[in-house]
């Protein structure tokens, strides 16, 4: 196996990328540095309705941040969440899970989205779950994923949607980065106290209060993902399908959905795809005498199972996982993973993935997304893209060779590095490197 291979390719120049930068959102975070590292968590208020404390919350929010001119429906949904919060219908923390994730509701109390604030991610400074806090404290080198840039899970969530959308996979619920404020979020005690004092001053001395930049709690930046109704953890349905297999036509349709999940996960190198991190929606035909049989002749075929890929926050590593923690894709143990990729999957993604301009466009879009983080580092971004290009290279080869997902995950990990050509700025060299070591310990 040759260690490296260099290919010159013509693609968009970096000045063109910068020109697109106008599309990126402004993100001047005025987060206050806490003086006292003390955390105060106030439980969700159980009585909805207008709560005085919530009144000035939106006063601190740069409302233009949450506007998406290219997607008015999404802007409207975020607006509904803001209005609900302003009326005391607060996001509710999801009890399961290792991070501060919240079900966001509209004014009628219906869950419309899942919000994951950056600073409440598993190893974020305001993560409310004590297990992660203990991990960080007791054994910092053994926990967390050393191949990932820390605390950028919210960007990974939005980036997974971006990849899904560009490839028309249609399995990731729409996810974008927004800012929200809610007193049910986890804040430092000092932030809550400051907000109270400012509010009191505002009430007593309105003229002084008007000089404050922000009255309420600090807004939190995070991923905002549409809530999909009627889905259950994949684990639930996969067990059911074992005992009660799907009819062949539905099994075929499910296989196509499954392949889309494989394509997504492989490209973004998801390190957290357990069977609880994807969802399936399925309405089985009515059951009679313990057997699947329609009680009345169905008017139309039962709908095929649909897949939703959620929880994409631990993807886009800047290097392949190292040899002692491999973070396998858990779908690789499913029977569906032994079936060669279908013609439909090939037709869907091969034309784009084999087009170097498409791949470069994808990298450029990810650049615009990732660079909005305060800790953005161009070198790490380039390394993330090298891993992603390597994944795309393997995937296209696997699709062309009609391999199965199991065979795909057994291919040697490769990175494709980009460097400027010495001859002209419009050319780049791409260098392929194999990461040959196979993991000796596989644990997620
Ligand atoms: N977009 C969504 N639509 C519907 N339900 C969702 C969505 N996102 C999350 N959920 C539900 O919320 C649960 C927790 O979500 P998720 O796994 O993304 O959170 P998490 O805090 O990252 O958890 P963990 O760290 O355990 O993976 C999921 O198991 C699922 O039931
Ligand atoms: Mg999860």
Automatic annotation (TrEMBL):
Residues annotated as domain PI3K/PI4K catalytic: 88-418
Compartments in which it is found: Cell membrane; Membrane
Keywords: ATP-binding, Cell membrane, Kinase, Membrane, Nucleotide-binding, Transferase
UniProt superkingdom: Eukaryota
Primary location group: membrane
Topology versus the membrane: Peripheral membrane protein
Recorded GO MF terms: 1-phosphatidylinositol 4-kinase activity; ATP binding
EC numbers, comma separated: 2.7.1.67
Catalytic activity line of the entry: a 1,2-diacyl-sn-glycero-3-phospho-(1D-myo-inositol) + ATP = a 1,2-diacyl-sn-glycero-3-phospho-(1D-myo-inositol 4-phosphate) + ADP + H(+)
Any one GO biological process: Golgi organization
PANTHER family: PHOSPHATIDYLINOSITOL 4-KINASE TYPE 2, PHOSPHATIDYLINOSITOL 4-KINASE TYPE-II
Protein name listed in UniProt: Phosphatidylinositol 4-kinase type 2
